[in-house]
Amino acid sequence: MATPGTRVWALTEANGEVVWWPAKVIIPELEGVERTDQDDAIYLQWYGDGSFGVIAGPEHLEPYGGNDARRQTADPAVRAAIEAADADETAVGGIIKTASVAPPAAAKPKTRAREQKTDVAKPDEPSGAARDDVERSDAELVALRDELEQALSVQDVPAARRVLLKFARTKVDFRQLKVTRAGLVVSSVLSKPAFAALFGLARIVVRFWAQALPAVSKSALRSIAAMRAHPDKPQTAAGQPETEETGARGTNFSQRLRDVLSQDGDASMIVAVDEVAAALEKAATTKDKRMHLIATLEKPGHSELRSRLLSGELSATAFFALVPSELMTPEERRAEEQRHAEQLAAKQASEESMLQFSEIFECEKCGKRKCTFYEQQTRGGDEPMTQFVTCHECGYQFQKGGYE
């Protein structure tokens, strides 16, 4: 069913709506479509507007046929796409109609209908069209970056797709990536499950922009890929043997710092690595600071701390001003809180073991009789003393005696 040239029904979903859309299986290289890193990906050309997309696996496809309930639709865009599929005499499988119908370009569906098809992984373009990358100013890139951030904040998948499609056709240089930080926002799409349908498109943008990175950053990317492929094998970004001179200021410290900053990110995150690493190197003025820096950032639980450095939220100077409690990983912080709670409970138990509880008083709040008290003269010497009572069941404190 997934043979190139075969007509199929492809399941698309967005905003809780499911749509079966007619498509033709293609070989991406022949259509100028860039492949994703999904092993089971199936590449399609949508009937109706001729754009391209990708489906995660064959479970989202069904054979295309003439007597099919999926053909019963009131959506004019889907009906036009079905007519275009029926008229495609070059396709394999399904039915072939010889009746004259409008060409696919004339049957282009409404924008909203196309936005509901979530598995798009390539900018909309006619079959066989060549790339026509555009150059944008810093202000235009910043505006698109802000538009994408807004779409991510409100979980607007169609709006995010529109911006990513524009980014996929935008040629940038290394300076623009550093100044606008657009790459960081594109990379953040990959960390949001609600935008899983756009992961393929975001990766295409990231890889396209990675071509603008300097040689040392591309080397770091290759090192990351090698480490992920062989996690048990020691690696360095430059492919050089590792040494133990972590505390020394030099090539090994610089490279190790860049490696640890790069370990969580994709290509767009690498854009900030050189700048952040240089600032940290400058701030790490002593051997102890350099060793402290590497030891802290290499902790597996510090991905959030590394991200804060790369995003600019935390400066190099501010990093070295953090107190030990702020440098704990989430796991270390939970363990420390548990240790403090256990110590407090032990102290309280020890103190209570030395108390003599009385059942004379009944707690006015919980009604229990596990109380301690002490007496104090609060009025004249000939007046009865006042008892100050503490309930050790609920902690309530009250007074007895005197004029109540």
UniProtKB/TrEMBL annotation:
Residues 103-136, 230-253 are annotated as: Disordered. One of its GO terms (molecular function) is nucleic acid binding. Transmembrane segments: none annotated. One of its GO terms (biological process) is DNA-templated transcription. This is TFIIS-type domain-containing protein. GO terms for cellular component: nucleus. It comes from Neobodo designis. Keywords: Metal-binding, Nucleus, Zinc, Zinc-finger. Residues 112-136 have a biased composition (Basic and acidic residues). The lineage of its organism: Eukaryota, Discoba, Euglenozoa, Kinetoplastea, Metakinetoplastina. Residues 359-399 form the TFIIS-type domain.
